Amino acid sequence: MMRIGTGFDVHRYGPGTFVMLGGVRIAHGAGLIAHSDGDVVIHALCDAIFGALALGDLGVHFPPGEERWRQADSRIFLRQAGALMHGHGHVLGNADVTVIAEAPRIAPHVARMREMLALDLEVAIERISIKATTTEGLGFLGRGEGIAAQACVLLEAA
């Protein structure tokens, strides 16, 4: 049995000097306004896994109103999503994530992000794809007001 899930996350830029993407700290002229660390890559990936399992979304599992998740490392969320995936008898067939932003440049960090995600999900790195695109200057992302990510996963029966 196979299951497919999709996820999407977006955060606005705010004060700061770095962003977290795929578990990697990337220097940037702004930070992200979020309850946790604002890692849109991991948030979209978790939502895709939860969706494939029909278990709601990130907010169901890690409510933003709970103080214990303030400034939380999103890798905690991903490890929990992976544990639920395994607990429901599935393994990750593959994950495909697209980062949507004008900046920062993603390409120099893709290899490390893939390593971090594969480690947290306990899969071979070949099962994780990360790529980036811009909106060609259009909309709030194009104006550099924030960053987004979308993810798609295929889960296979273990």
Core attributes:
single chain; 158 residues; alpha+beta; 60s Ribosomal Protein L30, Chain: A; five-stranded mixed β-sheet; two-stranded antiparallel ribbon; 5 helices; 30% helix
Summary?
The protein has helices at 40-52, 58-61, 74-87, 110-121, 139-142; strands spanning 2-14, 18-21, 24-27, 31-33, 90-100, 128-133, 146-157. With 158 residues, it is α+β, with helices and mostly antiparallel strands.
Describe the overall structure:
The structure is a single chain. With 158 residues, the protein is α+β, with helices and mostly antiparallel strands. The protein has 5 helices and 7 strands. The protein has a single domain (2-157), classed as 60s Ribosomal Protein L30, Chain: A (2-Layer Sandwich). It is 30% helix and 34% strand. Strand 2 (18-21) and strand 3 form a beta hairpin. It is globular and about 40 Å long. The model has no long low-confidence stretch (mean pLDDT 97).
